[in-house]
Amino acid sequence: MSATAQAPHETHLNRWWHVVGGLCMNLALGSLYAWSVFVAPLEKEFGWTRADTSTVFTVAIVVFALSFIVAGRLQDRLGPFRISLVGSVLLTLGFLLCTKTSSLTYLIVCFGVLVGVGNGFGYATPIPVMAKWFPDKRGLAVGLAVAGYGGGSAIFGPMANLWLIPTYGWRTTFAVLGVVFFAMTLVGAFLLKNPPAGYRPPGWVPAPASKSAATTYEFSPGEMWRTAPAWFMWVAYALGCSAGLMVISQLVPFAKSMKISSEALQTMTLFVGAVGSASGRVLSGWMSDALGRLNVLRLMIGVSAAAMPLLYLSGNNVAMLYVMVFVVYWCFGTQLSVNASTTADFWGTKNAGINYGLLFTAYGVAGIIGPKIGGALFDKYKDYKAAFYTAAVLAVIALVFEFLAKRPALPAERRA
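The structure assignment produced for this chain is given below.
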């Protein structure tokens, strides 16, 4: 039975399967955030510096963001399945080819470019699909779907660092993860489909006065970028995520620098951070449905600005370190979830793929700023203090721009 022929109640129940599909897709894609487990073995084998290994992560994030634009446009036109499938194949291919790494350039191409494009194509599909299926619970649904991106590193980071790498080596670890990710993303691709045209949940009536209500006008990409809120949100997104990506790219090495000698305790920071990121995506998404998207973004960016220096000052106090890692990752995850929902609310769902893809270029810029702050400043000072305090300053600037943003007005010709 086709989607358009389904009874309303049947279609309404089936929409939750798309959340499962988005979760499967993003659990695999979120392995990107477990990159730091490969830093030490790669530096040991090849003699690379922290700035060298940070460059691999930076390229992956930038390519992720840029390919998201292309994938978002194609998803709007071709639907989610084919785009998800491309992402699945490229992600897997990148991980498998990483097993043959012999130079930094080769690793940048395989992990930075191929895994980055795989992430862009895979990640471009769940967000628009959720936005279309869940206009009534958009923040929560998008948060649940992308929670896997935060949660993936909670599963695969410790698995790789405590078992696969020590037992089989980093090359075999890349291969094992590649196969697992192919299976997971394939399941996600088959579950993700767009709803029938004009779909609305039974009994749901749009409420334009609501703090999180969706727009009734579908902005084209050009119209979106002619609104001031798009630019304010872009700057806030770029600088706000820089802080989180700095920590993500350096988390395990940072824990080692804090004289936490136990590898299990170091790896636990990955798990704690991933749980924080997943929690931020889901719970902040749910909060934004009630409190308003911008209000939640402002709150969490403000908390991030305070948490950055506190994380550094936690030193080798393991309990305090875990608490602050959780908070920093929560604030980071919030931005990935709530900015996506805000884009659909403010500028419509018809072009949500490309519109959010364009806003998501801010994440690519953050992928340059954050890891470079961590890697370069550590190499210079042999300490992470300057990196954490710099990230805090960037978060404060992001907060200023988030306060400047507001719901966009309709284009002048539509108001006439």
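Interim note for the steering committee: Residues 11-197+223-406 form a domain with the Growth Hormone; Chain: A; fold (CATH 1.20.1250.20). The chain is about 80% helix and 0% strand.
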